[in-house]
Specification:
- The chain is of the alpha+beta class and 423 residues long.
- It folds into 2 domains: 10-26 and 237-422, Enolpyruvate transferase domain (UDP-n-acetylglucosamine1-carboxyvinyl-transferase, Chain, Alpha-beta prism); 29-234, Alpha-beta prism (UDP-n-acetylglucosamine1-carboxyvinyl-transferase, Chain), CATH 3.65.10.
- The protein has helices spanning 29-38, 55-66, 92-97, 105-112, 131-139, 170-180, 196-208, 239-251, 267-275, 313-320, 341-346, 376-388, 398-402, 408-414; strands at residues 10-14, 20-24, 46-49, 70-74, 77-81, 114-118, 143-147, 150-154, 162-164, 186-190, 211-213, 219-223, 232-234, 255-259, 279-282, 286-290, 299-301, 326-330, 350-354, 357-361, 370-372, 392-396, 418-422.
- The protein has a 4-stranded mixed β-sheet. The chain has a 4-stranded mixed β-sheet with strand order 2-14-16-15.
- A hairpin with a 2-residue loop joins strand 4 (70-74) and strand 5 (77-81).
- Helix 5 packs parallel to helix 6 (170-180) and helix 10 (313-320) runs parallel beside helix 12.
- It is elongated.
- Bound molecules: uridine-diphosphate-N-acetylglucosamine.
- Uridine-diphosphate-N-acetylglucosamine (UD1) binds next to helix 1, helix 5 and helix 6.
Length: 423
C-alpha cells in the first residue's frame, strides 16, 4: 500500500479558495490499528472493511508480519491471518516509528504468554509512558521486567482482576481489554477511557466471541473465554479526519458536506464550531458545514472523550488564528502538542504560548510561507492555515501527515482546493 506519489514529499498549496461540494471520510486510524492488533487473538482470518489506506496501517501490517502472522491490504480491506503467529517481539524499528505498535502487547501476552518490546516511539508530542499498560498486565498476573530499553512481560496464565487506571488512557484501556480476553474469570477496568474507538474494539472482540460490556463508559468488564474466531468487520469512520475537513471548510469560508461520519462522535467539535459562528448541520451519516465570514474567537480545552479531542486541538487553533478576537486554547493531554505554532507564526499568525495554553489573537489573514509539519495533527493545522492564506505555502514533513490522512490531496482537490505534491 502506498499513499504517497513516489518521492513527492512536499505539499504546495495556493490559498484563498472556498471549499465546496463533498468529501468522504475514511475508516478510523485509531480503530483499525487496534483491531488489527486484536485480530492476533483470533483462531482464523479477519477481514476489515472501510480500512484507511494510510502509512500507519502499512506499519501495523509490518508489525504483524514481523510476528509471523499473514497481513496484507487489498482494495480498501485489510486481511489478517494470525494462524502462523510465531514471534513475541514486534520489530524494533517499527515500534520506534509508531507508538500504536505496542497494542500487540496485550494480544501476545494473552496468546503466547510472553512479549518483548522496545520502549515505543511515534509522533513527538511529549513523553508518552506505558506504565498504565504495564500495571494492568501486572494486575492480571504478568511479570514485568525492563532490560536495556526493552520491556518484557511474561505470564503462564492470566487471571481476571480489578484494575483502576490512574488516568483514562486510551491505549492502556484497549491493551488491558485485549489481554483480559483469555484470562481466567472477570476483569474490571475502572476509570477506563470512553473513546468511540474503544467501543469499536469491544464490538469487534464480542463479534469474535469475547464477553465484554461497558466500553463507552468508565467501567469495562471482560469475562475470559477460551477462544475467539476470525470474522469480517467494518471499521467506524474517522472522527478526527472528519473534524479536520470541517475546520478546512470553515477556515476557507466554504460550504460543503462531510460524508461517512457518525455525528454523535463529533459532538464536542460540532458545538465548538457552532460557538465560533459556523453553521454546522449534522444529518444521519454526514455533516453539512457552512461558514460565511471569519469565525468568532472561542476557548477550547482538550479533554478525554467526550471532551474536545486533543487530536483536534491543532486544527482548531489554526482556525482561530483568523478569528475575530482572542481565543484561549488549553492542551491538557500532551504537553508538546504546540510545535506547529512556530510554523503558523511564519504564516503571520499571532499566537503566544504560555505553557500548555495558547493565546491566539486572530489576524485578518495569513500569508503563504515555507513551513514544516512537526507531527501528524500539527501538519493538518498547517494545511488548514495554507488553505486560508494569501499566496503559496510549501509544507515539508508530509510523511507525518500521510501517517493518518488517506489521500488528503485528492480529497481537498475534490473540494476545490489548489493543492499538489511536489518534490
Ligand atoms: C491515543 C490516540 C491518540 C490520541 C490519544 C488521546 C491511538 C493510536 N492514538 O493515544 O491519537 O491523541 O489517544 O486521545 O489511538 N499515559 C501515561 N501512562 C500510560 C499511558 C498514557 O501517563 O501508560 C498518559 C499519556 O502520556 C497522555 C495521557 O496518558 O498524557 C493520554 O494518553 P493515551 O490516552 O494513552 O493516548 P494513546 O493511547 O497513546
Amino acid at each position: 500500500m502506498e499513499t504517497r506519489e513516489g518521492p513527492l514529499m512536499k505539499l504546495k498549496i495556493t490559498g484563498g479558495r472556498r471549499l465546496e461540494g463533498s468529501v468522504k471520510v475514511s475508516g478510523a486510524k485509531n480503530s483499525i490499528l487496534k483491531v488489527m492488533a486484536a485480530s492476533l487473538l483470533a483462531d482464523g482470518c479477519c477481514i476489515f472493511s472501510n480500512a484507511p489506506m494510510i502509512t500507519d496501517v502499512s506499519t501495523m501490517i509490518g508489525v504483524l508480519q514481523g510476528l509471523g502472522a499473514k497481513a496484507r491490504a487489498e482494495s480498501g480491506r485489510i486481511v489478517v491471518d494470525p494462524s502462523s503467529l510465531s514471534g513475541y517481539e514486534p520489530p524494533e524499528e517499527l515500534v520506534r516509528e509508531m507508538r500504536a505498535s505496542i497494542q500487540v502487547m496485550g494480544p501476545l501476552l494473552a496468546r503466547l504468554g510472553r512479549v518483548r518490546v522496545r520502549q515505543p516511539g511515534g509522533c513527538d508530542i511529549g513523553p508518552r509512558p506505558i506504565d498504565l499498560h504495564l500495571k494492568g498486565f501486572s494486575a492480571l498476573g504478568a511479570k514485568i521486567k525492563e532490560e536495556r530499553g526493552f520491556i518484557i512481560a511474561e505470564a503462564r496464565k492470566l487471571v481476571g482482576a480489578e484494575i483502576h487506571l490512574d488516568l483514562p488512557s486510551v491505549g492502556a484501556t484497549e491493551n488491558i481489554m485485549m489481554a483480559a480476553c483469555f484470562a481466567e474469570g472477570t476483569t474490571i477496568i475502572h476509570n477506563a477511557a470512553r473513546e468511540p474507538e474503544i467501543v469499536d474494539q469491544q464490538n469487534f472482540l464480542n463479534r469474535m466471541g469475547a464477553r465484554i460490556i461497558g466500553a463507552g463508559t468508565d467501567t469495562i468488564k471482560v469475562r475470559g473465554v477460551r477462544r475467539l474466531e476470525g470474522i469480517d468487520y467494518t471499521i467506524i469512520p474517522d472522527r478526527i479526519e472528519a473534524g479536520t475537513y470541517m475546520c478546512a471548510i470553515a477556515i476557507t469560508g466554504g460550504a460543503a458536506c462531510v460524508e461517512n461520519v457518525i455525528p454523535e462522535h463529533l459532538q464536542a467539535v460540532i458545538s465548538k464550531l457552532r460557538e465560533a459562528g459556523i453553521d454546522v448541520q449534522p444529518r444521519e451519516s454526514s455533516i453539512w458545514v457552512s461558514a460565511g465570514q471569519r469565525p468568532a474567537a472561542i476557548s477550547v480545552r482538550s479533554m478525554p472523550y467526550p471532551g474536545f479531542p486533543t487530536d483536534m486541538q491543532p486544527q482548531v487553533t489554526a482556525l482561530m488564528s483568523i478569528a475575530r478576537g482572542t481565543s484561549i486554547i488549553s492542551e491538557t493531554i500532551f504537553p508538546n502538542r504546540f510545535r506547529y505554532v512556530d510554523e503558523l507564526h511564519r504564516m503571520g499568525a499571532n499566537i503566544k504560548l504560555e505553557g500548555r495554553v495558547a493565546v491566539v489573537e486572530g489576524v485578518e489573514s495569513l500569508t503563504g510561507a515555507d513551513v514544516e509539519a512537526p507531527d501528524l495533527r500539527g501538519g493538518a493545522a498547517l494545511i488548514l492555515g495554507a488553505l486560508a492564506a494569501d499566496g503559496e505555502t510549501e509544507i515539508s514533513g508530509v510523511q507525518h501527515i500521510d501517517r493518518g490522512y488517506e489521500d488528503i490531496v485528492g480529497k481537498l482537490r475534490g473540494l476545490g482546493a489548489d493543492i499538489r505534491r511536489v518534490g
